[in-house]
Amino acid sequence: MAGRHVSRVRALYKRVLQLHRVLPPDLKALGDRYVKDEFRRHKAVGSDEAQRFLQEWEGMSTNLDTCV
């Protein structure tokens, strides 16, 4: 289970950073820093909070994907 969770987190992290590539350079830098900080801050949270975190970021990823 933990391995699957780690893979899911990494895939989501990469996906969000990939979506930022189309942004203007200043917004890309801001967004990349924010994503990196958020994922780092939530690295050691409990299972329930981790699930909420992933759900929110997956929704954000979907929203960004539709805008691109």
From TrEMBL:
Pfam families: Complex1_LYR_2. GO terms for cellular component: mitochondrial intermembrane space; mitochondrial matrix. It is found in: Mitochondrion matrix. The keyword Transit peptide applies. InterPro entries: SDHAF3/Sdh7. Its main location: mitochondrion. Keywords: Chaperone, Mitochondrion, Transit peptide. CDD domains: Complex1_LYR_SDHAF3_LYRM10 (cd20270). GO terms for biological process: mitochondrial respiratory chain complex II assembly; succinate metabolic process. Interacts with the iron-sulfur protein subunit within the SDH catalytic dimer. Plays an essential role in the assembly of succinate dehydrogenase (SDH), an enzyme complex (also referred to as respiratory complex II) that is a component of both the tricarboxylic acid (TCA) cycle and the mitochondrial electron transport chain, and which couples the oxidation of succinate to fumarate with the reduction of ubiquinone (coenzyme Q) to ubiquinol. Promotes maturation of the iron-sulfur protein subunit of the SDH catalytic dimer, protecting it from the deleterious effects of oxidants. May act together with SDHAF1. Belongs to the complex I LYR family. SDHAF3 subfamily. This is Succinate dehydrogenase assembly factor 3. The gene is SDHAF3.
